[in-house]
Design goal:
globular; five-stranded antiparallel beta sheet; 132 residues; single chain; 42% helix
Length: 132
């Protein structure tokens, strides 16, 4: 069951840009908190492949953290694919996985990442609190 606070965080992320296609919210252990398409009014239940994919996204975060002391913290990862773009952001208690329309420019990707990182602190605080 997805908490109201997590849903509110998802709504705020989708409001950032209409080119966001899909959102996955993942906790620090790689568990799926929310999996939702921008065209759906409700989150969906992820299949086993997507659960494994999100787990691996979380695992990559923990592996990258190994290099924080040497290189600094990772703020986001941008991946351009043939049909879509992927954006992964590391918020304090969540990993945000997004698919974004192919036509968004690299500058547009940076703006999306910055807007998400600056989401209302109160919304983020409530979402984190709902985990515990």
């Amino acid at each position: 069951m997805v908490s109201a606070e997590i849903r509110e965080l998802a709504r705020n992320i989708f409001k950032v840009d209409p080119n966001i296609i899909h959102l996955g919210l993942i906790d620090l252990e790689g568990h799926v908190l929310l999996d939702q398409s921008s065209s759906a009014s409700e989150p969906m239940e992820p299949d086993e492949d997507r659960i494994m994919f999100y787990y691996q996204v979380g695992l990559r975060r923990s592996r990258r953290e190994h290099f924080n002391e040497i290189y600094g913290h990772t703020t986001y990862i941008h991946i351009q694919r043939e049909k879509i773009q992927q954006l992964v952001l590391y918020l304090p208690m969540f990993t945000v996985y997004l698919t974004i329309e192919k036509n968004v420019t690299p500058d547009g990707i940076v703006k999306i990442a910055e807007k998400i990182r600056n989401i209302d602190e109160e919304v983020l605080r409530k979402a984190v609190k709902s985990l515990f």
